[in-house]
Amino acid sequence: MDKWFESKLSQLGKLDYYKKPEKYNKGLKLDANENLALKKDFIKKIAIKAAEREDLREYPLQQVDDFYLQLSKYTKIDKKYLAIGNGSDQIIDLILSVFGKEKRVTTFTPTFSYFIDRCLLYSLKIDKIPLLQDNSIDNKKFIQSAKKSEIIYICSPNNPTGNQFDKELLIELIKIFDDKLIIIDEAYVEFASYSFCYETIKSQNIILLRTLSKAFGLAGARLGYCIANEDFAHTFKTIIQYPYAINNISLNIGSEILKNSKYIEKTIKIIKKERKRILNSLKELNNNEIKVFQTESNFIFFQISDMNKYENVLAQLKKDNIAVKTIGRIKDRKGGHIRVTIGTKMMNNKFLRSLDKVI
Ligand SMILES: Cc1ncc(COP(=O)(O)O)c(C=O)c1O
After folding, report:
1. Minimum CA distance residue for ligand 1 atom 12
2. For atom 14 of ligand 1, which residue has the closest CA?
3. Ligand 1 in contact with 161 (CB < 6 A)?
4. 301-347, pLDDT tens digit by residue?
5. Domain annotation for the chain: domains and CATH numbers
6. pTM over 0.90
7. pLDDT tens digits, residue range 334-358?
8. Which pLDDT band holds residue 288 (cuts at 50, 70, 90)?
9. Taking a C-beta distance cutoff of 8 angstroms, is the pair 201, 229 a contact?
10. pLDDT over 80 (residue 276)
11. Distance CA 79, CA 77 (A)
12. Kind of pairing, strands 125-130 and 104-109?
């Protein structure tokens, strides 16, 4: 008999997969875009209270309703347009596994690599249109490709480049492609200039992804959500999503954090201020060796035009125990690329000092 299981396993083993950040014990962790301006103790207190309040012998029920209530208050969106997941990673996974069969996706490159890897896992065809040198979308090529696809994925602001795209262009794409599923990933929207929130609830074909892992400082709690039309949100909640996808404690923590959104907003302001300062510092460092890109996120994306210099910078950062996301070479561009999370002033200064030793 055909050893179908073995052969499928071997085929899966050859796929690319999401590479998690390295574990750093005592170093500076600037590689995963978490909110480091948020006080660790603030989250800790909320987590302890939540653990005390919850009875883990019971499945989550009321906790889900409470979380939706807080989410609805925070987003100012009726809960009929909201659906939650075990991180937005899980929502992406479920969308692709349910709607992706034999479909083709248009996106750009570079973008959120997990999304691409998930498409490959579910055997979707994927067309990645390279972003232009300034990280903007190649409109003509993108539209040409999207015409042949059923799904469009737009990360806004984009990870790893950090920028948002021309809003008018995106509005145009939404208008032209009302027959496609458009996934807009707004994981970093709290740091950005605009959102597609209201366009989404008026449409039948847009799913907007959000997360509490970034601005809300809850990467470890695994809470994501999406905003979509009422039909999708309802079907997702009742049929597509697992019955008890998120645990009691995470839901409870999530509700408390959302009640404290004023404090979160304060940390966002700090990060945005720091963003401006680091951008200026990097620009001043050395114009010929470093190219820094405009960012609307809680991270900065930059290019070191000489590959040897790039390697030296990485070695120096490692020596100083600073973890950053190494993007490396991008086709048709010079040198290597780095994505670095914006932390507190002290953390950022440490990063800048390390860079200064090489550049
Ligand atoms: C663009 C983007 N979308 C989604 C996610 C996943 O978020 P979550 O932690 O909610 O699964 C990330 C995490 O890095 C991301 O960068």
Report:
1. 187
2. 32
3. no
4. 999 999 999 999 999 999 999 999 999 999 999 999 999 999 999 99
5. 22-38+262-356 (3.90.1150.10), 54-259 (3.40.640.10)
6. yes
7. 999 999 999 999 999 999 999 999 9
8. confident
9. yes
10. yes
11. 6
12. parallel
Residue 213 alpha carbon to ligand 1 centre in Å: 7
pLDDT at residue 286, rounded to an integer: 67
Q: What are the structure tokens assigned to 248, written together? A: 């009691």
For residues 115 and 5, what is the distance between their CA atoms, to the nearest angstrom? Answer: 25
Return the number of other C-beta atoms located less than 10 Å from residue 22's C-beta.
10
Distance 117 CA to ligand 1 centre (A): 13
- What is the CA(33)–ligand 1 centre distance, in A? 9
| 313's tokens | 């910078």
pLDDT in tens, 179-217: 999 999 999 999 999 999 989 999 999 999 999 999 999
What span, in angstroms and rounded, lies between the C-alpha atoms of 218 and 114? 19
What single letter denotes the amino acid at residue 114?
A: Y
- Please tell me the distance between residue 288's alpha carbon and the centre of ligand 1 in angstroms: 33
Check: CB of residue 139 under 8 Å from CB of residue 175: no
CA trace torsion 341, 345, 346, 349 (10° rounding): 70
Tokens of 318: 């490692």
Alpha carbon distances (Å) from 350 to 26, 37, 304, 346: 14, 15, 19, 6
With a 6 Å cutoff on the Cβ, whether 185 touches ligand 1 is: yes
Tokens of 298: 């809680």
Quick check: CB of 213 below 6 Å from ligand 1? yes
Q: Is the distance from the beta carbon of residue 211 to the nearest atom of ligand 1 less than 6 Å?
A: yes
Of 119, 123, 92, give the one whose Cα is nearest residue 107. Answer: 119
- Local structure of residue 102 (DSSP, 8 states): T
224 lines ligand 1 (CB under 6 A): yes
